[in-house]
Design goal:
Distance between the termini: 56 Å
Number of helices: 3
Strand content: under 5%
Structural class: mainly alpha
Order of helices and strands: HHH
């Protein structure tokens, strides 16, 4: 298959600076949110097993908000990434305590 005439998938993308510090901050923030999503999933399953539909819906909404925040992360905003990590560390601890 000759693809020499097809445009690159990278065509039109703006240039960006990327460094290790920025990459690590971004990955740590992503991981913190993923851990919260996992903790919410445990609690959602517990609420479902207990037949608590109201709590299940609240937890599902909170988990969706986490996913939305993860999608909206920007590697260009170091302060926001640091804030996400700080906020989610506390949230993960709270969620894990509730699941215990």
């Amino acid at each position: 298959m000759d693809t020499s005439h097809e445009p690159s998938v990278l065509a039109g993308m703006p240039p960006f600076d990327w460094d290790n510090d920025r990459a690590v901050r971004y990955e740590v923030a992503q991981e913190a949110i993923c851990q919260a999503v996992a903790a919410y999933t445990v609690l959602i399953n517990q609420a479902a097993e207990q037949g608590d539909a109201t709590r299940e819906a609240q937890l599902t909404e909170a988990r969706t908000a986490c996913v939305d925040e993860r999608i909206g992360l920007s590697s260009a905003d170091a302060a926001a990434l640091d804030a996400v990590v700080s906020r989610y560390r506390a949230r993960i601890a709270e969620l894990r305590a509730q699941a215990a």
